[in-house]
């Protein structure tokens, strides 16, 4: 058990405590025989003491494990929002973990995820913890992942959209950013304009200006601190921006 919490703490910063840390502790207890919550709480106390007495700069950025645990908790909330847990959604989460982390780490993450799903977690409290420690670019990436989960069963229910929108609000992601990321997962008329956060009435110069702005906002380099395992999702977002711009260019022939 000690080696497991040591592995867990090695990749974590702010998520080792607070409501996310509580969810992690609950999840570990759901699949580790003989686990006692007090043991994990002591690990958290010791870890936080090290943070207080150590070099604070070491914890100034979100670590790869922080993003991972934030994903696990928010994904569990979205998956349960329509009143059922669809196997296709679980498969999507697992496949994403495999792609990002490799088999060994993905198996551990998914085992944690299945434990977290069993716990009722406050979306608001979790999001408050995330937004206090995570950059805007990282929060946008979380939202992108959540829409991917919701779409995994080929149907995004109203309850799932409502939950993701609520999470976006708690994360201080504005309406334009929310609609832009949402449009990346739908093939509907006008979505290319939504992705670039402009109206169809925008001039060609406005389209070009919006494209440059979105390229800057969603450039994968903004997520390099999260580690290479999380860059694929950033590249998918970036490609959506490229595709939307190309579609508008083709329509307008400029």
UniProtKB/TrEMBL annotation:
Q: Which domain of life is it from?
A: Bacteria
Gene3D superfamilies named in the record: DnaJ domain (1.10.287.110), TerB-like (1.10.3680.10)
> Per the database record, which ranges form the J domain?
191-253
Pfam families, alphabetized: DnaJ, TerB
- Please give the name of this protein: Molecular chaperone DjlA
- The organism encoding this protein is Polaribacter reichenbachii
């Amino acid at each position: 058990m000690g080696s497991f919490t040591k592995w867990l703490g090695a990749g974590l910063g702010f998520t080792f405590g607070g409501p996310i840390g509580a969810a992690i502790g609950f999840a570990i207890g759901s699949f580790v025989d003989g686990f006692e919550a007090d043991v994990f709480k002591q690990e958290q106390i010791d870890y936080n003491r090290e943070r207080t007495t150590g070099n604070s700069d070491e914890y100034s950025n979100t670590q790869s494990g922080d993003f991972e645990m934030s994903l696990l908790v928010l994904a569990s909330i979205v998956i349960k929002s329509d009143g059922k847990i669809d196997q296709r959604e679980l498969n999507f989460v697992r496949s994403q973990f495999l792609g990002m982390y490799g088999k060994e780490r993905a198996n551990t993450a998914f085992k944690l995820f299945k434990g977290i799903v069993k716990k009722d977690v406050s979306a608001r409290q979790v999001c408050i913890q995330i937004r206090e420690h995570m950059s805007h670019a990282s929060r946008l990436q979380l939202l992108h992942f959540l829409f991917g989960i919701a779409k995994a069963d080929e149907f995004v229910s109203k309850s799932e959209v409502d939950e993701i929108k609520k999470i976006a609000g708690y994360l201080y992601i504005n309406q334009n950013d929310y609609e832009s990321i949402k449009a990346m997962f739908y093939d509907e008329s006008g979505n290319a304009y939504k992705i670039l956060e402009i109206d169809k009435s925008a001039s060609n110069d406005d389209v070009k200006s919006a494209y440059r702005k979105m390229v800057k906002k969603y450039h994968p380099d903004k997520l390099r601190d999260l580690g290479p395992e999380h860059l694929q999702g950033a590249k998918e977002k970036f490609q959506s921006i490229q595709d939307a711009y190309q579609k508008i260019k083709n329509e307008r022939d400029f």
